[in-house]
Amino acid sequence: MRYRPLILLLGLWSAIVSLAGQGLADLSRETLVDVNRYRSARILPNHQAEPRLARAARNVARYLAERGPESYHSGLMAREVSAVRYPSRETAMIVDFNYRNQREFLKALQKSELGRTLMGTKKAYEIGIAVLDANSARLPRNIRSIWVVIAAQHDTMADAGWREGIVKYVNLFRRQHGLPPLTINPVLNRAAQYHADDMAVKDYFDHTSPLGTGPGERAKSFNYRFYMVSENLAGGARDPRETVEQWKASKDGHREAMLDKRVSEIGVGYRYLPDDRGRVRLSHYWAITMGQPYP
């Protein structure tokens, strides 16, 4: 899966605080209630509680409790969100320390750029909130509570028209380099779709299948008679434009394949696995097959 992490460490407060007498699960729920109360007053849609994100937030809080705030690293959010098998396409995390209650925490949110975005965005996010205090965990010195909020939008399948979108951006790239557009070939569509499905289902990401079949063999198996074929693969992005941008930026021949003067046809395949639990875990699997047929 692909993440766009936006991380904020708001700072360490040295005040001694106590959350005793209030259940931490209740505190997490009440924090979301207060966030949504703020949003409702501004006619904004409510954020929704998401149990998997709450588990990820607890795991982040426990990690920081065990190792200290200085142990934070940029991959922490992505790792924990992936571990709870939440397929996200936009994710943000806020971490802060030493607040006595959710009202103090919310006041701090409103003073930070990311916090204001979370409170005031027109988008509705799924939210996981976790709070740890000295009664629930052994915390580092001078830390009396840890607050973690993870907000995300659930990943979804690419929008309808994804095949035409890929062809559009590939041909735009070719036109920028003075090359004629590629035309969609239904046979190449089937070959590319077969490979996208095969990679997703069999948990690999390669031009050669586990059976040893490559792009040429696949095209032949669908009765495509050709002078030449080439193939680009991509994973992780749900958007056709972003996928083509990956190929344009690649140094592994993908850019050159799209600008090949010898090809005139294209086929596009795409497979989305909403709960990709395999070794590869890309969720979005893309394949394009480009070719030049016999006359």
TrEMBL record:
Protein name listed in UniProt: Uncharacterized protein YkwD
Gene3D superfamilies in alphabetical order: CAP
Record SUPFAM superfamilies: PR-1-like
Domain SCP, chain residue ranges per copy: 35-136, 168-284
InterPro entries named in the record: CAP_dom (IPR014044), CAP_sf (IPR035940)
Annotated PANTHER family: SCP DOMAIN-CONTAINING PROTEIN
